[in-house]
Specification:
Elements (H helix, E strand, L loop, with lengths): L8 H6 L7 E4 L3 E5 L9 E5 L11 H22 L3 E5 L15 E6 L15 H15 L1
Antiparallel strand pairs: 1-2, 2-3, 3-5, 4-5
Helix pairs in contact: 2-3
The structure holds guanosine-5'-monophosphate.
């Protein structure tokens, strides 16, 4: 497996070099809206310490991260009254990984609403801002 490279979009988002709609941040992790959401409220959670994916992650980082994934998942569920949540995490390109900084997807599922396919289409920034605000409010 290739080594972690800090030259990836999520490292730039963590560093504040690329804008994102942030919902949560502490010393360990950052959560922000996915730019091309599979459903309303699709959120990403990343550790601040870089690893390519789950396989090369420091177990201590992973342990802290999953607790934050749970906390944010609960807020996402409340914010959008989701019927369920899919938590995805991909390792390497053949498995669907496109950004090589460990991340967990939190994808709300709504009864009877099929998940959107990955089309490369970016969401309306105003909508993402409103969704981020709803999650931040649910986290309080
Ligand atoms: P992966 O397939 O690697 O698990 O997922 C990467 C995710 O990152 C995709 O769902 C994609 O929509 C999202 N993404 C890619 N580039 C950006 C970006 O610049 N900003 C944000 N917020 N999300 C991104």
């Amino acid at each position: 497996m290739a080594a972690y490279s800090p030259d990836n979009i999520f490292a730039k988002i963590i560093a504040g070099l690329v804008p994102s709609h942030r919902v949560f941040e502490d010393a360990e992790a950052l959560a922000f809206m996915d730019l091309m959401p599979h459903s309303k409220g699709h959120t990403l959670v990343v550790p601040k310490k870089g690893s390519r994916n789950l396989l090369d992650a420091d177990p201590e980082v992973l342990a802290k991260l999953i607790v934050r994934v749970q906390k944010i998942a609960m807020a996402v569920r409340i914010a959008f009254s989701a019927d369920g949540l899919r938590i995805n995490q991909f390792n390497e390109e053949p498995a669907g990984q496109t950004v090589f900084h460990l991340h967990f997807h939190i994808i709300p599922i709504y009864q009877g609403v099929p998940m959107r396919a990955q089309t490369g289409e970016m969401a309306d920034p105003n909508e993402l801002a409103a969704h981020a605000e709803a999650i931040r409010a649910a986290l309080k």
